[in-house]
Structure formats: C-alpha cells, structure tokens
Amino acid sequence: MTREKNIAFIALFAALIAALGLIPAINMPWGVPVTAQSLGVMLAGAVLGAKRGFLSVLLFVGLVALGLPLLAGGRGGLGVFASPTAGFVIGFPIAAFFTGLVMEKLSDMDVRLSAGIGAFAGGVVALYICGIFGFWAIMNFSMGNERSIADATFVMSVYIPGDLIKVIATALVTHAIYRARPHYVLTRA
C-alpha cells in the first residue's frame, strides 16, 4: 500500500471516531459517558491493523489534546486528561493496537470471528484496563476519594453489555467490508 493510501486510511478512521462522538452519549453519574466512539476504535484496529489502527486513534487523541471538541458531548482539550474518562481516552490507541494485533494473528480464521475476538481483546479488555486504572487514579488523587480498584471495576461493569454490542457490530461491519472490498481490510491484505 502506498504512503498516501496509508495516510488517507489513518485520517479516515480518525474522522470516523470523531463522527461517532456526534451520537448522543448516555451520561453516567460517575462522569464516564457511554459513547459510540469505542466502536470506531475497534473498527480502526480490525480494519487497519495494529500499526495503522494505533496511528489513526493516536491522531484522534492528539486532536482532542489540541482542544478540538471531538469527544462525545463536545469535549476536548487537556482537561480531558484530568477527568474520569482520561484512562479511556489514553487507552483508545492501545485498544486499537491490540484489536489489530489479534486480527493479524488470527488471519487464518473467519473474518467475523477474528474481528470479534480482536475487538473484545482490544476494545473491551485492554480498554477497560486503561479505563479502570485511569478512573481509579483520578477519583483517588484529584477528588480525594479512597476508591479501590474493585470499586472502580464494579462501576465500569455497567458498560459491558453495550461494549459487547459494539464487539458484534465490529465483527459484522468488518466482515461486510471484507466481502465488498477485501483489499480494504488491511489486517487480511
């Protein structure tokens, strides 16, 4: 793939993640909203692969850090990295990387199954590890609470059903792209 196509795909998926932020978020009382943006993160990894998916989501996070209001609810700027969502935002590129890595390692498996496993490994497991530790750190250090990791994990468990729907959507969308344009699923190219 040419350098120009790589850049175009990376920018396209950063834009997709930003567009998914336009879908209204469900605000939770503890400050971490339920959004569609993690679906874009999973898709970036599943379609682009580990390296390109990571770069795509890193571009998105960089734009957020610069102050663009790209996160759900129109949030952006450095303040995001001192909020309860900081671990998730920081974990987005890591989640895309692991999603893509698993897809690449399971290249002999059916696309739906490997995309689903990859999206779960990256978009749920890796992202939740980052998100839980970020939530715990912010709640303990900036808000003076003495929450345990177990408490933070329990609070975040509310998100799992929605994220499992995103895993299934990632598997189905990746498969549809693969059937229509196999060379666009770079984890299989």
From TrEMBL:
InterPro entries: BioY. The chain crosses the membrane at residues 7-26, 32-50, 57-74, 80-103, 115-138, 158-178. Pfam families: BioY (PF02632). It is found in: Cell membrane. It is a multi-pass membrane protein. Coiled coil: none annotated. Keywords: Cell membrane, Membrane, Transmembrane, Transmembrane helix, Transport. Its main location: membrane. Belongs to the BioY family. This is Biotin transporter.
